[in-house]
Amino acid sequence: MRTVYIIGVGMTKFGRFPESNVIELGRTAALNALRDAGINKKDIQVAYAGHARTGQLYNRECGVGQSILWELGISGIPISSVGNFCSSGSTALREAWMAVGTGMYDVAFAIGVEKLTGRAGKGRPLTSDGVELLTVMGFSPPIYFGNVATRHMADYGTTPEQCAMVAVKNRKNAGPNPRCQYKDPITIEEVLNSPVIVEPLTLLNCCPTTDGSAAAILCSKEVVSRYTSKPIEIAASALRSGPYKKCKDITTFGSDRMSALDAYETAGIGPEDIDFAEVHDCFTIAEIIHYEDFGFCKKGEGGRFVEEGMADMGGKLPVSPSGGLMSRGHPIGATGLAQVAEAVWQLRGVAENQVEGAKVAFTHCAGGFQDTIELGDVQSSAVTILKRGW
Amino acid sequence: MRTVYIIGVGMTKFGRFPESNVIELGRTAALNALRDAGINKKDIQVAYAGHARTGQLYNRECGVGQSILWELGISGIPISSVGNFCSSGSTALREAWMAVGTGMYDVAFAIGVEKLTGRAGKGRPLTSDGVELLTVMGFSPPIYFGNVATRHMADYGTTPEQCAMVAVKNRKNAGPNPRCQYKDPITIEEVLNSPVIVEPLTLLNCCPTTDGSAAAILCSKEVVSRYTSKPIEIAASALRSGPYKKCKDITTFGSDRMSALDAYETAGIGPEDIDFAEVHDCFTIAEIIHYEDFGFCKKGEGGRFVEEGMADMGGKLPVSPSGGLMSRGHPIGATGLAQVAEAVWQLRGVAENQVEGAKVAFTHCAGGFQDTIELGDVQSSAVTILKRGW
Questions:
Q1: Where would a tag sit more exposed on chain B, N or C end, judged by fewer CB atoms within 10 A?
Q2: Is residue A247 in a domain?
Q3: Do residues B199 and B217 share a domain?
Q4: Is B127 part of a structural domain of the chain?
Q5: Is residue A294 part of a domain?
Q6: Out of A49-58, A127-136, B28-37, which region has the weakest mean confidence (pLDDT)?
Q7: Are A78 and B130 a contacting pair at CB < 8 A?
Q8: What ipTM, to 2 d.p.?
Q9: How far is CA A116 from the centre of its chain?
């Protein structure tokens, strides 16, 4: 397929906006992306909207993209909804990337949106993936990641303090980022002493409940010079769906490893070539495992990776310079595109918490637990590698 | 993009299966497609599941594809859910088509599934598109199509008898098709005398409530000879999302007209080259309007087109030889792929109600009404053109 670039990105501020709805959130992010690209809305030829579940709130499971774009005066083009748990936004980007890659379209819109406050059925526990059935049975993501953390600590000596360091680092990174839900610095003690959710995870080891939207505009190599001299190349957009049958270790995620390997291969790079990463730090232990699964460090050394400052700004490989899910928040279908937006600003050199000279970015989203949970894997994992295109 | 073929299709019987669930239905259709293609499941590289809403029933909005394929022993590959109202199945086919078209994948799975009996929230009126909000306000698809029929009758002299002829024709076509929900022949009088739903539409002018699934396996030109000497070429897979601002006439659908024009252009053919069509006969008046919007006849002549037998088996252009939505039933996300499956069997010359010598097929799905309904259009329209590939 042909080379595809990102020419514009946009976001809303992430946070709790109970008075808003998904259409308003999506419209704001999409409008920001149009303005960022400096593109006429008439140039948009195809669009994808990623959202895991909030369509229910508005009885528009399938029409979120149509409704958002209609409000911007965009209609008539092909518009589809895509869903893939926490990777829904990344999946929207990927479908837009392939649509342009085929040669059928030159300009595509990818929008991710979710609203987790004021949800329909709000008496039910919030889970990120619509697994209320399992929730009723006592299962929810914090319980899963609590087990994962316990096992990782037992097998590799990872400590609660090392987990807390992920939260502290990401909150520090969030400080200058006006789009983050939480920006005030926190200490290791505060993380350790916050209320226990599921042992050994305390509240500040868990990402918050968030509303928000993010969007990106993609275009082909053939037309990119019409819009910008500084495009961002999508060097890879990989997706895998677990579980892997051979993955019986809950301290590693087979689909994450596979999507990263796919992305490295497609982009022709390895982890040593990455200038920074935005990973799916839904829980602090998840980020530690991502270091290992993506080859940033060896298996079992994730705790030391963060403790030794490797993932800090100025470290060997800064992780989540935007603040990550822990601080920015995690409006499910929006997160993948928010990571991409933050990465684009980094690669342009205009991020609030800038990784100096960043040329190659790695972003990762993952989610979904179902009846095959005993195998220890996620139902969707998406890795995007972005490069400066100039 | 490169040429893509269909090498296998499968369906469940369509009907009311309150004891089943979407995963069981999808597994059956997918397994039938694998067997039809004679392909090893390990060859499947990417998959899309189209479903408009029934994920809610099982709290798996995003994981229907993963769950269906897991039961068949397929995991690890990229799997995404797509939604687009009544065109969800067609959208799954289209994404699979583009994924293979890019050159990234050689073999793709498209699955469509829906379960409309035993729905969650079953106290609410059934609509096809999740527009309960509008339903609460008094709007539902039968009301819309009742208005459309009234206007078409006033403007063009279309008669209730001509509408009834669509139902009679499609029921006659269904007779030999074991997958149809309703197969017994009906008369014009029976259609006219069935209970009024919304004037002038009686019960037998409306498609039924149905559960079912359909699937297709696609592959690239490069590998097709490994699987079959009689592949079916996807000559076009077009999608448009209304509304068109200039479309203020409710007796025509702008997005339908545009998706058909796109498909004709991509396939390099016109309506005169089509051997048969499977159209979205959700209501009899819809089929009559589709004749006009797709260029099978002139505007306003749809009623005469069916009355004069043009759409009959052996007529100028047989429409819905499978029985259509009216008789086969309309499990939303499954319908687009059911049309494709029926068309593939026609092009292979093995359909139960065979169009002799059929070489070119036209299939069409459409759906979705939202807050822009006053403009008279649908939110998604998908047209697929299939050709014998030998």
A1: C
A2: yes
A3: no
A4: no
A5: yes
A6: A127-136
A7: no
A8: 0.94
A9: 16
Percent of chain B at pLDDT exceeding 70:
89
Query: What pairs with residue B84 in β-bridges?
Result: B86
Best residue of B41, B80, B90, B129 to probe chain A, by most A CBs closer than 10 Å = B80
CB pairs under 8 A between A and B: 177
Three-state SS for chain A is CCCEEEEEEEECCCECCCCCCHHHHHHHHHHHHHHHHCCCHHHCCEEEEECCCCHHHHCCCCCHHHHHHHHCCCCCCCEEEEEECECHHHHHHHHHHHHHHCCCCCEEEEEEEEECCCCCCCCCCCCCCCCHHHHHCCCCHHHHHHHHHHHHHHHHCCCHHHHHHHHHHHHHHHCCCCCCCCCCCCCHHHHHHCCEEECCEEHHHECCCCEEEEEEEEEECCCHHHCCCCCEEEEEEEEECCCCCCCCCCCCCHHHHHHHHHHHHHHCCCHHHCCEEECCCCEHHHHHHHHHHCCCCCCCCHHHHHHCCCCCCCCCCCECCCCHHHHHCCCHHHHHHHHHHHHHHHHHCCCCCCCCCCCEEEEEEEECCCCCHHHCCCCEEEEEEEEECC
> Measuring CA to CA, which residue among B77, B201, B108 is closest to residue B146?
B201
For B300-330, the pLDDT digits (tens) are 999 999 999 999 999 999 999 999 999 999 9
Do B59 and B199 belong together in one domain?
A: no
Specify whether B332 is located in the same domain as B367: yes
Residue A127 covered by a domain = no
Identify the weakest region by mean pLDDT among A282-286, B59-63, B157-161. B59-63
Q: What local confidence, expressed as pLDDT, does residue A61 receive?
A: 57
Q: Which two tokens stand for residue B302?
A: 């749809």
For B358-389, b/e burial (b = at least 16 CB within 10 A) is bebbbbbbbbbbbebbebbbbbbbbbbbbbbb
Same domain membership, residue A224 and residue A138: no
Which residue out of B86, B163, B206, B282 is catalytically annotated? B86
Residue B360 bridge partners (DSSP): B387
B70 plus B152 within the same structural domain? no
For residue B53, the chain A residues in CB contact (below 8 A) are: 61-62
Domain CATH for A88: 3.40.47.10
Domain count of chain B?
2
Do A214 and A117 lie in one domain? The reply is: yes
Other CB atoms within 10 Å distance of the CB of residue A369 = 24
Q: What is the DSSP string of B363-385?
A: EEEEE---TTGGG---SEEEEEE
| Residue from B7, B3, B226 nearest B103 by CA | B3
CB contacts, 8 Å: A260 with chain B: none
Mutation test of the interface with chain B: which of A22, A45, A80, A247, choosing the one with the most B Cβ atoms within 10 A?
A80
Residues spanned by the domain of B324? 132-206+236-388
Which among A218, A234, A250 is the end of a domain? A234
d(CA B32, CA A43): 42
Q: Residue A386, Cα to own-chain centre: how many angstroms?
A: 14
Measure CB to CB from residue A62 to each of B84, B258, B371 and give the nearest one.
Answer: B84
Whether residues B171 and B32 share a domain: the answer is no
- Is B150 found in the same domain as B112? no
Nearest CA among B180, B216, B210 for reference residue B353: B180
B33 Cα to chain A: minimum distance (Å):
21
Helix (H) or strand (E) holding B104: none
B330 Rama class: left (phi>0) / alpha (psi -120 to 50) / beta: beta
Q: Which residues contact B138 (CB under 8 A, 6 or more apart)?
A: none
Q: How many CB atoms lie within 10 A of CB A272?
A: 9
